[in-house]
Structures are given as structure tokens and as C-alpha cells.
């Protein structure tokens, strides 16, 4: 059974309440359904949910967990909120790109940029590098 730890931290950026949600370990079939409910609860409790998903210590995510990210995005947007992802590892960023999550959810290279995106207007970099990536690792393979 894979282990995952999800921690929640309240952050205030420019008077806006943001929930920083950090993932560590592996999201897979053995734990994703239970863990996803914690995120749904946060979204439900916030009048205008603003979430930063910090994937720095996330080692693996299965297809079902990617589906949850898409659903969280939909629920957050329906409540006029915002959701971003920060600091994914190379393997996680590759998965997010392949399935198209990066087309709907902005991915930031560092936590400071992710936080700033909720306050002052900060444009994301044209191509997001994963943690530990070298420049040529961020290129998208041609189909």
C-alpha cells in the first residue's frame, strides 16, 4: 500500500485567503479516493476556494488522481476560485502535460510565483520547468 501525506496551510496574499496543500509520497489506487475527499472538503468549506497544490514531494500519481485534479479544478472554478500547481517533479510534470492538465491549470516553478499569482499580476513562464529539470527535459515530445 502506497503512502501519501497531505498537509494544509492557510496563506494570505494581498488579503486573499489561500489554502496551500502539500503532497508527499504516492497517490495511487490504494489511497487516492480517501485523500481526494480532504480536498473536496476544503473546496466546500471555502466561499471562494483559492488553492495551491504543492507537488514538490509527490513521487507518483495514477490516472485516477489526475482525474481528481481535473474535478477539483471544475469545482473551484464554479465557486469563482483559482487553483494552481507548483513545483512538480519532472515525471509528474510530464504526466500533467501529456494529459493536458497544464492547458487548464497553471503550473509554477516555485512557490513564490504561485503565491504571487493570487495577488499582483504575475505572468507564468512560457515553459514551466520541473524541479530538478535541465532545459532540454522541459521540451514536449513531438507527436
Largest beta sheet: strand ordering: 1-2-3-4-5
Overall pLDDT: 88
Shape: globular
Give the CATH topology.
Transcription Regulator spoIIAA
How would you classify the helix and strand content by structural class? alpha/beta
Portion of residues in beta strands equals 25-35%
Please report the number of helical segments. Answer: 5
Give the termini distance in whole angstroms: 35 Å
The gyration radius over C-alpha positions equals: 14 Å
Low-confidence stretches: 121-127, 133-143
Number of strands: 5
CATH architecture: 2-Layer Sandwich
Number of domains: 1
Q: Encode the helix/strand succession as letters.
A: EEHEHEHHEH
Range of helix content: 25-40%
CATH class (first level) name: Alpha Beta
Largest sheet: 5 strands, mixed
Assign the CATH superfamily.
STAS domain
SSE blueprint:
Elements: E1 4-13, E2 16-27, H1 32-45, E3 50-61, H2 63-78, E4 82-86, H3 90-98, H4 101-104, E5 106-108, H5 111-116
Parallel strand pairs: 2-3, 3-4, 4-5
Antiparallel strand pairs: 1-2
In short:
The protein has 143 residues and is α/β, with parallel strands linked by helices. It has five helices and five strands; from the N terminus they run E-E-H-E-H-E-H-H-E-H. A five-stranded mixed sheet has the order 1-2-3-4-5.
Question: Would you write up a description of this structure?
Answer:
The protein is of the alpha/beta class. The chain has a single domain, classed as Transcription Regulator spoIIAA (2-Layer Sandwich). Helix content is 34%, strand content 29%. The protein contains five helices and five strands, in the order E-E-H-E-H-E-H-H-E-H. It has helices spanning 32-45, 63-78, 90-98, 101-104, 111-116; strands spanning 4-13, 16-27, 50-61, 82-86, 106-108. Strands 1-2-3-4-5 form a five-stranded mixed sheet. The radius of gyration is 14 Å and the shape is globular. It starts with a strand and ends in a 27-residue tail after the last helix. Residues 121-127 and 133-143 have low confidence and may be disordered.
Amino acid at each position: 500500500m502506497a503512502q501519501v501525506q497531505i498537509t494544509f496551510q492557510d496563506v494570505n496574499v494581498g488579503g486573499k485567503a489561500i489554502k496551500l496543500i502539500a503532497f508527499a509520497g504516492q497517490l495511487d489506487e490504494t489511497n487516492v479516493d480517501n485523500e481526494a475527499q480532504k480536498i473536496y472538503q476544503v473546496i466546500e468549506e471555502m466561499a471562494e476556494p483559492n488553492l495551491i497544490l504543492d507537488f514538490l514531494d509527490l513521487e507518483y500519481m495514477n490516472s485516477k488522481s489526475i482525474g481528481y485534479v481535473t474535478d477539483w479544478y471544475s469545482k473551484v472554478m464554479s465557486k469563482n476560485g483559482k487553483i494552481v500547481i507548483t513545483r512538480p517533479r519532472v515525471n509528474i510534470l510530464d504526466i500533467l502535460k501529456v494529459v493536458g492538465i497544464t492547458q487548464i491549470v497553471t503550473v509554477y516553478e516555485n512557490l513564490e510565483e504561485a503565491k504571487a499569482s493570487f495577488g499582483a499580476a504575475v505572468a507564468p513562464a512560457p515553459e514551466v520547468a520541473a524541479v530538478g529539470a535541465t532545459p532540454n527535459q522541459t521540451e514536449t515530445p513531438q507527436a
